[in-house]
Structure formats: C-alpha cells, structure tokens
C-alpha cells in the first residue's frame, strides 16, 4: 500500500493506512454528513463576513462568529477523515459535536422548523451511523490492531 489514500479491498470497504482494518461502507453516511455539516458551517461563516461589511459595531462580533464556525468546520473535516481511517479519537469528538447540534436544534425548532429538523436529523444520522454493527465491529478490530 502506498501513500495516505485508502485502497479498495474488494469487500465493499476501504482499507485505511495504519492499522489495516477495512472501513465499512456504513461509515460513508457518517463521513458524508460530517462533510455536509462542515460545508454549512463554512457557508455560514462566509455569510457572517459578508454581513459584517456593513454591520458597523456588530462587525467584530460577526467576524468572531465566522472564525469560530471555520474552526468548527475544520474540526468536523478532521473528524470525518479520522472516522474514515477508524482513528479512536474521531468518534467521541464527532459525537460530542453532534450532541451540541442536538441541543441547538431543539432550541431553534420553535422559531425555525427547517433549521431545527435539519440539525436533529443530521446529528442523529451521525450518531446512529457510529453505532451500526459494521462500524462498531470495525472500530473494535482497529482498537485491537
């Protein structure tokens, strides 16, 4: 195996570099949703920066929020990559973030049903994805390797 890119194993999975345990296809849901959440955070950060241009005294706060959202997005990208490679730190980091997303989703659902439901559905998809039998089995084998 060469480089850092996963190679096909022929069993519907990818074999990451390092521990040699194939990543199950079920992990694709987790990785894709984490990537989509990162893109939403980056888009929101851009909107904060655009809004800050004419926001006067609020510009500093908006830029601060934009920076925070970019940091969160970078963390999600790292967690998605780490999850695909079955790194043990990635699952608890992503689940902790998703618990925050659930709290946020519940808090906004009365004012914005779409935003609230979007948060809840994506967070639950990631959490459930981590606990599907193929993903749990792969993580267990990666921890033993």
Describe this structure in words.
The protein has 145 residues and is mainly α. 70% of the residues lie in helices and 3% in strands. A two-stranded antiparallel ribbon has the order 1-2. It is elongated. Mean pLDDT is 88; it is low at 1-11.
Features:
145 residues, two-stranded antiparallel ribbon, 5 helices, elongated, transmembrane helix, transmembrane, Histidine kinase, membrane
Major sheet summary line? 2 strands, antiparallel
Number of strands: 2
Low-confidence stretches: 1-11
Tally of alpha and pi helices: 5
Order of helices and strands: EEHHHHH
Q: What is the SS-derived class?
A: mainly alpha
Task: Explain the layout of strands and helices.
Elements: E1 7-8, E2 14-15, H1 27-52, H2 59-84, H3 90-108, H4 113-130, H5 133-144
Antiparallel strand pairs: 1-2
């Amino acid at each position: 195996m060469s480089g850092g890119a996963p190679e096909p194993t022929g069993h519907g999975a990818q074999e990451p570099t390092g521990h040699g345990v194939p990543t199950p296809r079920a992990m694709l849901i987790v990785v894709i949703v984490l990537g989509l959440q990162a893109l939403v955070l980056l888009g929101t950060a851009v909107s904060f920066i655009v809004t800050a241009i004419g926001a006067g005294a609020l510009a500093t706060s908006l830029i601060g929020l934009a920076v925070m959202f970019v940091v969160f997005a970078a963390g999600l990208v790292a967690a998605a990559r780490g999850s695909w490679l079955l790194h043990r730190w990635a699952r608890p980091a992503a689940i902790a973030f998703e618990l925050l997303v659930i709290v946020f989703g519940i808090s906004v659902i009365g004012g914005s049903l779409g935003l609230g439901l979007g948060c809840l559905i994506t967070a639950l998809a990631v959490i459930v994805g981590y606990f599907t039998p193929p993903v749990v089995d792969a993580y267990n084998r990666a921890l033993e390797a």
